[in-house]
Write a structure and sequence with these properties.
With about 375 residues, the protein is α+β, with helices and mostly antiparallel strands. It contains 15 helices and 15 strands. The strands form 2 sheets. Strands 1, 2, 3, 4, 5, 6, 7 and 15 form an 8-stranded mixed β-sheet that branches. It has a 7-stranded mixed β-sheet with strand order 9-10-11-12-13-8-14, with helices on both faces. A hairpin with a 2-residue loop joins strand 10 and strand 11.
Length: about 375
């Protein structure tokens, strides 16, 4: 790694022409998606794009995101309790300027990609150096970064990284990533239904009966633009009722996504009496189907089991298009496991730039996380 250097860019227009060649294995690091972030990132987010060079050849790419939590009206309104108020006070006053090495908007190890095998010691050293450089950039603007987080590593990678540059950092495990590994033998949705045990086959039938009257339709970019306000209203209802949020999407996010990524981005609308009452989104990422943000009308969701039917529809799409696995992400762990997803533990590393506060991280951080109790379901025979 002696000949390795990095350059941090603040604009897509500055990126090397071979960027997408290096990022070929991950759609979340390719320029169409990065252009979505540039054009419609959350209002409290600024993105940085990192190019890693060996001599003059680009051999690695990475993403960093700065969040200003002072610009958030709410961190999430579902849990109104003393613990939530304390958490919000702490974030506003001691952790409002946050730097993520990785992508805070999605779940999974999507922070970097290399064309060559790089040892974990070098990766940790590189990520630390990049974070130091961005901290300096903000210091020059009289902004102090409070928290630095390196997010979402699968366990084998995390175990390696903490042997090196991440050794002194607080290691945290939040909600797991719900991943559905699809068997090669499944060719149609009927194969999936046949694999379910009687209890979960009955759940499938019951939810589909409740679903009667709902029309689903994949929306074109023109239709997304024409329904932008309603789509955002449905998204925002779900987002603000989450237990914790560090951002809210821009109003034009979904139409921008469709414009930039075309057929690789799917927005499926759910209509009742010709009114849009819900939607879900997907990103086709090679052999992996990534679920993205969704939204729904709360009343219709209860009456029609809308959310569960969305999960079934995403599963059907994944099977029929022969994806290897579906990334369902965090939240709603139990209902996702009832469809077939299993929890994969994700690890992050975090530190506070104030060394005195950082020493308290192991005591403070667990108290700030939303509490979680859930039972994993096993729906197959």
């Amino acid at each position: 790694m002696e000949t390795t250097t990095f350059t941090i860019y603040s604009s897509i227009a500055q990126l090397p022409v071979t960027w997408d060649v290096v990022a070929a294995e991950n759609a979340f690091l390719q320029t169409p998606y990065l252009k979505v972030l540039e054009a419609s990132a959350p209002t409290n987010m600024q993105c940085f794009y990192i190019g890693v060079f060996e001599a003059s050849e680009l051999m690695g790419v990475a993403l960093a995101q700065y969040l200003d939590l002072n610009k958030l009206e709410s961190f999430g309104e579902r849990d109104q309790c003393l613990k939530t108020y304390i958490r919000n006070f702490v974030f506003k006053n001691f952790a409002s300027h946050v730097l993520f090495l990785g992508n805070n908007m999605i779940t999974g190890q999507n922070g970097y990609a290399f064309t060559k095998n790089i040892d974990h010691k070098s990766i940790s050293k590189l990520l630390m150096a990049c974070s130091d450089e961005i901290i300096k950039y903000f210091k020059n603007q009289q902004i102090t970064i409070h928290i630095v987080s390196f997010k979402d590593f699968y366990q084998p990678c995390a175990e390696e990284l903490k042997q090196y540059g991440f050794a002194g950092m607080y290691e945290f495990n939040t909600q797991p990533n719900m991943v559905f590994e699809l068997p090669d033998s499944w060719k149609t949705n009927d194969d999936y239904i046949a694999a379910l045990s009687k209890k979960y086959r009955d759940q499938y039938k019951r939810s589909h009966k409740k679903f009667e009257g709902i029309i689903t339709k994949e929306l074109s970019v023109e239709e997304i633009v024409s329904k932008e306000d309603r789509i955002y209203e449905l998204y925002y209802h779900v987002a603000k009722n989450a237990p914790f949020n560090t951002f809210f999407l821009a109003r034009n996010h979904f139409s921008t996504f469709k414009e930039q990524c075309g057929d690789r981005f799917v927005l499926c609308g759910y209509f009742l009496n010709e009114k849009l009452v819900g939607f879900h989104t997907l990103l086709l990422n090679g052999t992996v189907l990534e679920t993205y943000f969704l939204g729904y009308d709360e009343q219709v969701q209860k009456e029609k089991m809308l959310y569960l039917n969305m999960l079934y529809n995403m599963t059907k799409f994944g099977i029929e298009h022969q994806f290897r696995k579906i990334i369902f992400g965090r939240t709603a762990l139990e209902i996702k496991s009832s469809v077939g997803a299993a929890p994969i533990q994700m690890t992050g590393f975090i530190y506070h730039t104030n060394k005195w506060i950082d020493q308290l991280m192991s005591k403070v951080f667990p108290k700030l996380e939303p509490s979680l109790a859930w039972q994993q379901r096993h729906p197959f025979k």
